[in-house]
Amino acid sequence: MSVSLRSRLEGATDGLSVDLDRTTAVVAAMLGIDAVWWLLLYGGHVPMPGMRWLMMTAEIPMPAPGAMERAVFHVGTLEAVVGYAVMWGVMMWAMMQPAMTRFTREYTAAYRGSAAGAARALVAFLGGYYVVWLASACVPLLYDVVLPGGIYGLTREHTPFVIGGVLLLTGIYQLSRFKRSRLRTCCAAVEPHSDGALGAIRIGVHHGVQCVLTCFGVFFLAMIFFGEMNLVWMVALTAVVTIERLPTWGEELAVGTGVLSLVAGLLVLLMRPDLPIAFAL
To answer: Fewer beta carbons below 10 Å: N end or C end of the chain?
Structure first.
């Protein structure tokens, strides 16, 4: 390379500052992995058991509340349940990955050891964390079993009551001391550590359980009965749980969304508007 060309390139990059330390690498990796989850989900590269029956025979839109659960139980095999769990897991990983970026960055920064050791601990941690969200697929399936008519049938027959009740319960949960204490646990500073693989998996499982409890109102009440495969709701709720993880004012957002959900639920229950099931899409 000529001296003049080299000097021009150096001059063009003088304003750039790239520090590829371990925390920067973690942030980049988390964003990249999240993009993979979203592409897998909306590229149709995850199992969706019973989809042909759902769309062609039952004529239930995929984003409708309880649609995917109804399709799974129509197929009625263990393979269908496992496929649904994989689909649910990828969806929840996509939605929780942005919220976890700050924690994983701090977890890596607090590691006392080599960069390779930090990478192994982080991979093990995420493995345990992902397993918890994969297992959480049992919650909507359980709803569909115990509710009369399943999620879809109940929402279709009693849309204002279901939507209003879910909003009310979500608001109560968001405002509860239990929710806010779990949120503070998720936002707590990470202590210095030197976790091995097993220890990191154990911590990942524990943190995953805390995250499920923190997000229970948003994901396991509102999202399920509004339609978990609706892109608009997925993006909106991803933003909510991500901002909630900001230690400075995340708790204020949790309270704000709780109040808003509570008021909206009361209005729907009291006014009983004639809402089609499309309201929940």
So the answer is: N
